[in-house]
């Protein structure tokens, strides 16, 4: 596969979509980004990286960080079988998890959330257990868990991303984090609501702060495609060490496919057919297991918060390559 | 791959789960099935079929029929790009569909439905447009469309299944269809409700009747694995002719993965990682694109309506083979 | 109180509102009514009747019939204490009801329904028990019960209304009833849905038919004010015989106040402060216990289905007289 | 009316219910109250007060404070017509309110809230506008407004209650207020959620604090019956000065009847037929316009948060006296 040629054709195809949609404007720090940016990068499983357009320009990762925080919590919990206990071995005599067993899946579900309208309905009807780790409520629970496991959820993620991307300059964008906090009443409502059900381990202000910092990290398409390589390598990190076992990596991909693009996950699976996680900064990371990790960026968002040109680019990439999981 | 050996190991693994769960009891005709049945079959893309246990015993396909009715509607609508118009080409100057263009996707969505609790909520909030073609409301719309396209939705499906499975003895189970109709107030409510939004083309009683007949068809694991082969063959039928183009086949698989196992689709993707469609008769059909189609059957259902032993079997199949879409 | 003078002042006050709002147009038979009609009548508890404007012009009673069907079911059930058993005597040793005891309140609630949006949600979440007897679902249950008690729900109501109003010419409007049936998918959905929970005693088509016939009865403001006199007379009929005991009459008034004007009951209580039942034909019946029953009619409806000029007239009536229940 | 004799008979009737239900236990400070307390007091409109049982024992007013905060906001807003503008004069040329006009009714509704389940659903579906001023979300908005109007919402209410009850010893219960704050995640969630819709004027922590302090005020049945006298006197205060005009007092009574007893307002109206406001401290205040104000107290609550013995007492009071608003 000549990745560079494919990316160039994809970029040409996506060009007319660049500038379509709306740049996220709920905080001023995001609103300032120019709508006409477009970049795409591919990191294959052997470490080669290709890119076109603004693929080395940093942008705010926003919800893409949710895929990494989930991976870090799962990685911290080796020995756990991620809630499989729900299905139970017959007879129920399954041995309790050893040291490090984590039960994040008792505190957050794995099902798509339906509509945004439902987010609070479901929390209320389902006793403060968010539907999945990629809606805000679920990501707050994951961050809360990462905070407990590491003592500093946002810094531990930043360090991981620096190491994995090989870019030691990655940093929080303080202005974005502050701006999020200033407009953070809705996330505060979600966190307090879950706390009222006993589903947070750390104080609400601390959880929210780490959550906003994680979202504020700035990375380029290159950084994200490289840092997300472990999802295509069945859990192996860039240095060949194991972050997750193959089953765990597969499962994060499954959750990305069913829940990774907000309320459009079904649509995205139908159209693109790849596990993916999007952010309101305009980035989308996507995985072709066993082959490569992609990241595309263009700030204009559709009504459900996914990059318009980014989705068009990924759609065309799967058309050109014939690579989809289906 | 020695399919026969794999199936035997899978059956051994699933054995302790057989008899767990509840046999569907909402209609007497289903309730009579013995809980201790178990069968599994694999049809590879070259036409070879393997099976163990009760793999040649017919059972009520129930909701598995929904995957076939969707495929038949899509097949009748060649030339259509399945609602892609929603994403629009830039400038919006996309040519209108040619003859045969179908707009089933304007009448039914492609997103997971969230909880069963939501089914009527969402119909109400979303103007009578069901979330996806695999919840009952969505399947009624697809059946309604198939009725319009073919003049006889249930017979056209029966003929297709006979041809595709190579089993000319396939038939409706009149007792099951009658029993469904007798206990069909909820489906009647859904159909009238959608009719009140103008989302049915045919009279409610006719749509419901064809829907019940489709569900009542009796097939074995062998029949279903063979008949579903086109989903693994990127749209090619058993005789090599094309039912769907590759993109359409991929898309049905995507909808099966995100919506095919009732409210447990996220869980099923997480655990098994295959496109699948289950039925309350205890059958599950699953697809490994480019390789094979499986069908497993065991009547005991979990709380969400999926076969307990069937899910365990598919889980173990992917573990043994390492084949998952992720 | 010089009722005639008050009514004239009220009519003058309401004049500018006549023609505002929308005439119900969901069925052609209602749509044809001219928007500029206005009538109001008062029947005092001694039998005197006063009216102005189009107070003797018949119109479609529609949902006003719900107050009468509830009264007839309660009247048929003397000896019952209408679900008071829920509160229980201490010790729970309350004697079972005697002959005629009815338990309509086990099948329908007495709480306001919140938003129209909620109607199906609540039926689903609350096992097919409608919130109150004045939403459509609840009225279908009451009609179903009246059908069981009388053998002919709609005719028994027509006979009662003829006797009580002293107008032997009252009749069903066949065109309206047929038109409702033709556009009756939503009510059919509600009825089938309740049937699926076992909350209907009679076949769905029969219940719906009687319900539509009750709604189609044509009466004037005069007819309705006189026929509703028993609600102001603490349960005594026009001929002095007892239909309901004082407690029952009080309770129907309570349900009218909290649930009688669709989703605007709180607003209506706030503004007018009288028990009332409205219909989409533009009529509103209101009760001043111990004094009189009013009926006002003007076809233009507000967004919640209540007559705009009718509500303004009742508001002004309470302002002029100082009569409100609060 | 020999109030003392009536109250004694009422107390005897209610006796078997005392101790039934559950004492509120969501905060320790309330949990400590003995379940076997019972008191009832009546204050007639001429200033006479009667009582039996524990009628002079202070208890935590809790949500009963919501009726007073609403009254204080309306009193601060003379000249306002309480949202009547929604109904509009024909032509819409109604003059803007004069000085003091308040628009609390643009920020909170007047409709019953349906189920508790719905509280957050409705806030979400209705853009952060609570259904009515007596659910927690609505009371937070009213407190927020009172804070803006007075600069100190809780102290201004305390002063008013001291003056109106004639009891200068009324005070906040600091332990209760602190305990509420410690377990206040759900109210914090509601407040942040409304803030995210722009429906709070003051900082969330300040609004919550004043809200908890208002709820923590300790008063006896005597204090509350006397302090609530203005609702029976059509708005006149104990000293004969005017707090509210007659229309405003009527309207508070209407909201109490339709929304004052949590999700049981319809049931309470059906059974008792009086405007009332209950609190989880076990108190209920009720109004017979033009006659008297009652307060009853017994800590055992039914499933919806209303005093079991208190409701039984009010029910019997209306039966004995024949006084209901219907």
From TrEMBL, chains A, B, C, D:
Pfam families, sorted: Glutaminase
UniProt keyword annotations, A-Z: Acetylation, Hydrolase
Cross-referenced SUPFAM superfamilies: beta-lactamase/transpeptidase-like (SSF56601)
EC number per UniProt: 3.5.1.2
Region (Disordered): 79-109
Binding site for substrate: 63, 136, 180, 187, 211, 262, 280
Signal sequence coordinates: none
Cross-referenced Gene3D superfamilies: DD-peptidase/beta-lactamase superfamily (3.40.710.10)
InterPro entries for the chain: Beta-lactam/transpept-like, Glutaminase
Reactions this protein catalyses: L-glutamine + H2O = L-glutamate + NH4(+)
Record field: compositional bias (Gly residues): 80-100
Family, as annotated: Belongs to the glutaminase family.
PANTHER family: GLUTAMINASE (PTHR12544:SF29)
Assembly and oligomerization: Homotetramer.
UniProt-recorded name of the protein: Glutaminase
UniProt organism field: Streptomyces nigrescens
């Amino acid at each position: 596969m000549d990745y560079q040629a494919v990316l160039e054709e994809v970029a040409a195809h996506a060009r007319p979509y660049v500038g379509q949609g709306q740049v996220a404007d709920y905080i001023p720090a995001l609103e300032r980004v120019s709508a006409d940016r477009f970049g795409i990068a591919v990191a294959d499983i052997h470490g080669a990286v290709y890119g076109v357009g603004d693929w080395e320009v940093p942008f705010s990762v926003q919800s893409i960080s949710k895929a990494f925080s989930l991976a870090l919590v799962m990685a911290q919990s080796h020995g756990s079988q991620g809630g499989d206990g729900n299905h139970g071995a017959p007879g129920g005599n399954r041995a309790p998890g050893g040291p490090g067993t984590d039960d994040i899946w008792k505190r957050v579900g794995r099902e798509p959330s339906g509509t945004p309208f439902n987010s609070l309905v479901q929390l209320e009807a389902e006793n403060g257990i968010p539907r999945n780790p990629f809606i805000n409520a679920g990501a707050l629970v994951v961050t809360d868990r990462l905070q407990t496991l590491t003592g500093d959820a946002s810094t531990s993620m930043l360090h991981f991303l620096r190491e994995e991307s090989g870019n030691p300059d990655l940093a929080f964008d303080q202005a974005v984090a502050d701006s999020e906090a200033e407009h953070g009443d809705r996330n505060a409502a979600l966190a307090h609501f879950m706390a009222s059900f006993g589903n947070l381990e750390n104080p609400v202000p601390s959880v929210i702060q780490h959550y906003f910092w994680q979202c504020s990290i700035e990375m380029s398409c290159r950084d994200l495609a490289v840092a997300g390589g472990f999802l295509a390598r069945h859990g192996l990190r860039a240095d060949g060490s194991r972050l997750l076992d193959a089953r765990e990596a597969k499962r994060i991909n499954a959750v990305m496919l069913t829940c990774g693009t907000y309320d459009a996950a079904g649509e995205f699976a139908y159209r693109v057919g790849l596990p993916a996680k999007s952010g309101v900064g305009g980035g989308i990371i996507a995985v072709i297991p066993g082959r490569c990790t992609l990241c595309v960026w263009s700030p204009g968002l559709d009504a459900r918060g996914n990059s318009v040109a980014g989705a068009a680019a990924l759609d065309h990439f799967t058309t050109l390559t014939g690579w989809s999981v289906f």
